[in-house]
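job 3f2a | input accepted
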Amino acid sequence: MTKLRVKLVQHTPEPDKLVSAAARLCYSRVGVEEIMENFTDEGVSRFLNILMEMGHQSPIEHASFTFAVEGVSRVLTHQLVRHRIASYSQQSQRYVKLDQFDYVIPPDIEKIPEAKEIFERAMREDQDYYNSLVEILYKRHYDELVRGEGLNEKAAQQAAEKKAIEDARYVFPNACETKILFTMNARSLFNFFSLRCCNRAQWEIRDLAVEMLRQVRKAAPILFKNAGPECLKGPCPEGRMTCGKAEGVRDMFRNL
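job 3f2a | predicted structure (256 res):
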């Protein structure tokens, strides 16, 4: 079993200042370097607050943020990569042999001993199936590569293992842990937070989104101070599907 680990590993230097300068450039006679030289902390705060209240979002695309995430399931990453204005690098099950895969247990399953026992047994069985398939496939591919194609021992071993694990991985469950590095610009992050910080988002990606927001607020406190689910800006947009807890949600994100 594994747990979520999130780290903001890199971001645009002084993102609040850069976004403010980019926005101000649209209305200025001077260049961006001079704008940035003359910006005080108070000026950045005042200008960026006005910008965000206006909803003028194109300048915020100049700031980007890169996250390293581990201890998440393939369920989560299948949702994450739907956010298409981003760059992703994910651990490959095709090239990485998982001799003992980690997995994510949903909290509602973990709370019930009987359910947890069934879940963990399924994980152990999946690992056994994977190991058996790798062994069977490896032997066949190795023999074909050595006898049929004349590869030397080392080359045949490497090629046979790759061919074996890329098919054996099909037995792995959605719970299988994965690692991913991704970069989003601030505008994409606003959209991500509005959807994935909502109480109606799936629990695992919501946990990820909340932790990401906590970290980017430290890096760009003015830019992201009002980022979060849509109910922070007004009435809940979910209609009859609302969680009915908007006030509690607002309090949580004000104090994040």
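job 3f2a | The longest helix spans residues 113-148.
job 3f2a | closed
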